[in-house]
């Protein structure tokens, strides 16, 4: 009996000791992660000089011991982003994104048609309307593998689908629908739309002083940022860089969706139709943190090919609550696009 009691006490001590070691290990992991997160933000965040980092660090360090493990501690990311007004930053860990608490569009800002289509998680589409007009739905493109090879594997099929219709129909013009493009990675989007943009500077990043940091160029199917080739598609046939194009936007069009719209600013024979965009026109870069997590951090502003910045992209023609995704020819935005395309002037 005494032997059993000693064994029980020993096992109890071992379990408690292991739990203590685990808690210590978790807290160490949490500390390492947040030290890295603060380091990245203090060096690279666009508005870093407006943030009282010592005050924020004190608050976060005080809060962290409440979390029993690393994953639960990621709730504290929102505290940092809220304090820093980092409304376009996010941390991603194991397919979960952590952001701040900022107001955004709600269901009442959208039509029932849009909400119904959005629930289906729309994918890329390209088709012909009324045997006369090309229609492209370019949705968000979320990807964790930013390699040139993976980007190419996403962009090339989109380009090929557009190219197939380009070669098989005599179309009067094209409609590029960005109403479901809430963001992600703009590189495959713009490579997929290469024929419409041609070999040009297509957008730029600028700093706080609105000075150009770098220009982004398309050249013979290659996407080039500064002097670095990011990815590519294999182009075929004639360009469509002088074809009439209507770009459709709404309040959901954000981040990389807005960059895609910006790339058409300054393009001839182009019109913007719909609603103003979401207003996430800041440039983000990806930085590794710890334990496989990474941050998408705001480091500059998005600008058009001339270096002009827009807080939001305002359409040339405003159309509100006239969506019809069951029959696009009854969609008010599409109808206005067709008017533009068929206008002889």
UniProtKB/TrEMBL annotation:
- Which Pfam families does the annotation name? Peptidase_S41
State the UniProt keywords alphabetically: Hydrolase
InterPro entries xrefs:
ClpP/crotonase-like_dom_sf, Tail-specific_protease
Q: Which GO terms describe its molecular function?
A: hydrolase activity
Identify this protein by name: S41 family peptidase
Listed EC numbers: 3.4.-.-
Limits of the Tail specific protease domain: 112-320
